[in-house]
Specification:
binds adenosine-5'-diphosphate, eight-stranded mixed β-sheet, Rossmann fold, alpha/beta, binds magnesium ion, 2 domains
């Protein structure tokens, strides 16, 4: 009798733990974050403002978003967010901090971390340390649906490494001729190494949608004709006074000026980006893969 009761208890325990397991499996988030690198040919075109405000919009649309501030020269995601972070990636690499613990929380649940000197530290790691780091940083795949990597401008090795490691790239330009030619130079460099890179263009600070379409058309035509690559247009952002005003008050414009033109434009871009998701998710992606590629590029 006792045997049977014991067996029954065992079976009930098994059923309980099985249902717990399957419940947690169905509740588990997708295990690969969508990693998008934001860059530009020329500096000061609005990358960081774009990144922060896009992140907030995506978060308002129900996505879990993390920003990696990978601009080694002018890391200022925290300034635009209005919140300083105490740690950076170097604390994970050298000081054994937990990446999830050092994420700083900004508005609307958007979290961010500064790359700091951590990016350079990557070069110095041996194979064992790299594997360990991949396990540590790979955690972000479970923490975020989308990871936005805000880089510096130009053709430096650092920036190019981020671009090559990332499956998707958003290239920001303004209507200024120098910004457009620098964008074109960057497209050329990217496609030399990776002709199938998914490059999405955003034209920032335009005076009209006509101006934006003209620039997109021109960039597309020369890229197709001379490099043989087709760009994707993600949209444009109007030159809007609410942007500098928000920078001064350190409050992202999508929160501060909910009805301004720039906010409407960012909302449109967020929607296009989310619609494109299905296409982007096929094949290898995720933050772990991103770091893997990044460290391979460095070593
Ligand atoms: N759409 C816009 N309208 C007006 N000013 C803008 C716009 N986007 C950016 N700016 C201004 O450009 C400056 C540089 O922006 P930032 O995001 O720091 O550029 P980057 O990260 O490319 O260096 C900021 O001072 C900001 O006020
Ligand atoms: Mg910046």
């Amino acid at each position: 009798m006792r045997d049977q009761a014991e067996k029954l208890r065992e079976i009930i325990d098994d059923i309980k733990s099985y249902s717990k397991q399957s419940a947690s499996m169905t509740a588990a988030p997708a295990s690969e974050a969508r990693v998008i690198t934001i860059t530009s040919g020329k500096g000061g075109v609005g990358k960081t403002n774009f990144t922060v405000n896009l992140a907030i919009k995506l978060s308002q649309k129900g996505k879990r978003v993390i920003i990696i501030d990978a601009d080694l020269g002018l890391a200022n995601v925290d300034v635009i967010m209005g919140k300083m972070s105490k740690y950076n990636l170097s604390d994970v690499i050298k000081n054994d901090k937990d990446i999830v613990e050092i994420l700083e929380e900004g508005p609307c649940g958007v979290r961010f971390v500064s790359g700091g000197s951590g990016v350079q530290d990557l070069v110095k790691l041996n194979k064992m340390q790299l594997v360990d780091l991949l396990m540590k940083l790979g955690k972000l795949d479970y923490e975020a649906d989308i990871i936005l990597v805000d880089t510096g401008a130009g053709l430096s090795d650092n920036v190019l490494s981020f671009i090559h490691a990332s499956k998707e790239v958003i290239l920001v330009t303004t209507p200024e001729p120098t910004s457009i030619t620098d964008a074109y130079a960057l497209i050329k460099t990217i496609s030399n190494k990776d002709p199938y890179k998914n490059i999405k263009i955003v034209v920032n600070r335009v005076e009209s949608d006509m101006e934006a379409h003209n620039i997109l058309d021109k960039l597309n035509t020369v890229s197709e004709r001379f490099i043989g690559i087709k760009l994707n247009s993600l949209g444009f952002i109007m030159n809007d006074n609410c942007v500098p005003k928000s920078v001064k008050s350190q409050q992202p414009f999508v929160l501060n000026y909910t009805k301004c033109e720039a906010t409407k434009n960012i909302t449109d871009i967020a929607e296009i980006l989310l619609e494109a998701k299905g296409a982007e998710m096929s094949g290898t992606s995720g933050f772990k893969m991103f770091i893997n590629k990044l460290t391979n590029i460095f070593s």
